[in-house]
Amino acid sequence: MYKRIISQSIDSQTSFFLFGPRGTGKTNWVKSTFKDALYIDLLSEKTFQTLLKSPSILEKMIPPDFDDWIIIDEIQKVPPLLNEVHRLIESKRYRFILTGSSARALRKKGVNLLAGRALLKNMHPLCVQELGQDFNLENSLQYGHLPSIFKHSSANEYLKSYIGVYLKEEVMQEGLTRKLDAFAKALEIASFSQGSVINYSEIAREVGVGRRLIMGYFDVMEDLLLSIRLPVFSRRAKRKLVSGTKFYFFDVGVYRSLRPTGPFDQAADIEGVALETLFFQELRAINDYLSFDYDLYFWRTQSKLEVDFVVYGEKGFFAFEIKRSKNITPKDLKPLYEFLNDYPEAKAFIVYGGAEKLYFGKITAIPFVEAIEALPETLKGYKA
Fold first, then answer.
1. Residues 368, 117: Cα–Cα separation, whole Å
2. With respect to CATH, is domain 5-122 assigned 1.10.1040.20?
């Protein structure tokens, strides 16, 4: 089992939620890290039915004078339990770990996330720092970093079943959409928007449903943490910018599994998007695990100048452009130069497929693997 970086940020005295997509290792991590904890599994039908009928039974399930962590796995399945958890934190000073697939989904059900009495933590796919010597760029770009990928006999088969399980156990069981076939098709069509600004009308035409329903499907994907919509960076804007959001599935392997390929597809285009996706998921993980608290954006003008990722916060201000090619051309550098003209405070990087670290004025070019390995230091080592 890999040592997870999230362990570094746990306060031993404070309850916390642990949210993350299915399959990112939440249950394995809490069980292996908090070995003396009381474990309550809401995937157990008997436990689920008992607590659904009477949330107050939770207190009876805790031994007298218990002084360790109490883990409730899949808390979103019985949202009313949170009222009881809140009461027990206040009255008994119990410490809870509450795992789930989406904070946003709980909020939509009108649930109070314990009014600040529990921290919010996020679990991501494995990152490069956790994989160590097991990291292989070629494999990562094809299969992603879900933990089960590294122990399954067939990564392809696992990823196919992963999507099927998500549709059956998350989308259908939660009643998030009545048209499961249309939603499944929307997932596939959405893969063509990976790393691009979403055109809801075009996707609606492809799926054969209304635009409003497609927008609802994207909300469901985000609620279940399957995807992220990245906003445009518009602070102190000096140019006309696009108004949409950029779309990403949360893991490059999930994206590759959903993305159909055929004779008309250019491998270089898919691999370029995969490289961008891998960088983004690494960036999100490090930002969360090390509590950097940056806001993440992209930047794109109406004249189609684009910077893939803008990282903005109290600790610094960064712009990252991701390129698959081994050589850097003036055309590759132009968006970053223009961004720096508008935001000279930023530190700019072009992350590319070459082997040497290079400097182009205020722009630093870094080989891809070196860049993602150095992200923890890069993001903490600069102050705007």
1. 40
2. no
